[in-house]
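Whiteboard transcription, Tuesday session. T.W. wrote the structure tokens on the left side:
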């Protein structure tokens, strides 16, 4: 019996409409749609690591991707000032503060190279809400959404909620975790409505070249397939990887593209919850209407902080990028020699996605692990490190490690992993 069997709960829908204790015959049947959702595995791993640390266990967390740096001072100061301004104590426009939407349009021109009308932007409560609203604005039951796999865990749960079908297109380590146009074409049917595109990628750290981005954009254009492009890791590129924005590469795609972004990863602002979506007006109208019922407006103080972030310089992210790059190299260096682990060198974001299939079926620390979920449990118990198993992102046989943590912890954690896995027999 594994001590860390807790991890299984992160892959299981919450309720399954069983009769709940204390509820009457008439009230025990809860929503089928919400009961089908499994909790976010990335957040579950992180919460479990924090719980163990609080209980005195020396756990090192490679779980949720979250910069370990504080939010830059000038952004925090803008929020402090905003707190004192009574204008921010009231409801504001549901789509977001006008000044912030203008700044996002300017930032898009600066970083992505194309013009956007501020009225085509909705500010959301974190990038995650933008993902939710984008899929819900496009999909109906019976539609198909193509999801390059491995994929970030929330995409598939959100698509499921729309009632549409997810078509998973897998690209393994042998193709740098990048899907080809041929694979997309093989997956296309008359029901194909949208492609999710994420480069730099969470969870794999893969970065598509400009040419690959252009080819995929042209394929979407040619076949009338919408693209939802998640650009939240746009500034985290290494080894000379070039930034490439699908709407800049294929400008005609703007009428069938929704661009998602936010301040969380660029400015170490995960807790502030400010993201945005850019899209054609009809899509934006649907998203605004929906959001007006969901949350009215995003917290004004957080929006003012985001305004200081997006209208300011990129110096802080460049400094963080340097630290992430150093940690990335260190992590790859320590993990690569481990027998049974294949560690492609990621070029973006802050994740290493290691292929551990060769370790499955072997004995690790006295246990035979048949899945990466079991391997992650053993690593938590024996190495005291928290990693996210591949099951959260698609097939079993992989583990994701975030390198957005301090250098010393990173080295200690990777060495502990090496120590346990090198004894596999
Ligand atoms: N996006 C980050 C991750 O994948 C943060 C946690 C989450 O929202 O999933 O780890």
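and on the right, the sequence the group agreed on:
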């Amino acid at each position: 019996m594994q001590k860390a069997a807790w991890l299984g709960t992160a892959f299981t829908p919450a309720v399954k409409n069983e009769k709940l204790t204390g509820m009457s015959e008439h009230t025990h049947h809860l929503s089928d749609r919400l009961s089908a959702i499994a909790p976010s595995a990335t957040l579950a791993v992180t919460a479990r690591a924090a719980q163990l640390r609080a209980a005195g266990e020396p756990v090192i967390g490679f779980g949720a991707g979250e910069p370990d740096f504080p939010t830059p001072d000038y952004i925090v100061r803008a929020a402090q000032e905003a707190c004192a301004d009574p204008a921010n104590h009231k409801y504001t426009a549901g789509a977001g503060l006008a000044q912030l939407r203008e700044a996002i349009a300017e930032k898009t021109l600066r970083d992505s190279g194309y013009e956007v009308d501020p009225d085509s932007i909705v500010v959301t409560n974190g990038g995650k809400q933008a993902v939710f609203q984008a899929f819900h604005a496009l999909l109906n039951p019976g539609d198909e959404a193509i999801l390059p796999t491995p994929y970030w865990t929330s995409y598939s749960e959100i698509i499921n909620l729309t009632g549409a079908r997810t078509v998973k297109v897998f690209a393994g380590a042998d193709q740098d975790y990048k899907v080809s146009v041929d694979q997309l074409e093989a997956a296309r049917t008359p029901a194909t409505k949208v492609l999710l595109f994420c480069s730099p990628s969470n969870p794999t750290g893969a970065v598509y070249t400009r040419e690959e981005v252009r080819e995929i954009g042209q394929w979407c254009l040619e076949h009338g397939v919408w693209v939802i492009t998640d650009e939240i890791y746009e500034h985290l590129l290494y080894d000379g990887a070039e930034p490439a924005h699908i709407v800049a590469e294929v400008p005609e795609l703007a009428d069938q593209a929704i661009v998602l972004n936010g301040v969380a990863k660029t400015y170490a602002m995960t807790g502030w919850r400010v993201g945005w979506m850019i899209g054609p007006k009809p899509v934006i109208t649907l998203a605004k209407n929906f959001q007006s019922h969901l949350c009215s407006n995003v917290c004004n103080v957080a929006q003012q902080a985001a305004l200081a972030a997006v209208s300011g310089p990129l110096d802080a992210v460049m400094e963080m990028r340097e630290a992430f790059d150093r940690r990335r190299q260190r992590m790859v260096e320590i993990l690569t020699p481990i027998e049974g682990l294949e560690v492609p060198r990621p070029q973006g974001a802050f994740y290493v996605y290691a292929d551990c299939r060769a370790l499955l079926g072997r004995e690790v620390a006295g246990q035979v692990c048949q899945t990466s979920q079991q391997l992650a449990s053993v690593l938590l118990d024996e190495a005291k490190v928290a990693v996210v198993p591949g099951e959260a992102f698609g097939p079993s046989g992989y583990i994701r490690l975030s390198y957005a943590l301090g250098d010393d912890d990173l080295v200690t954690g990777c060495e502990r992993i090496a120590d346990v896995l090198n004894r596999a027999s």
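Someone added at the bottom: The chain has 14 helices and 14 strands.
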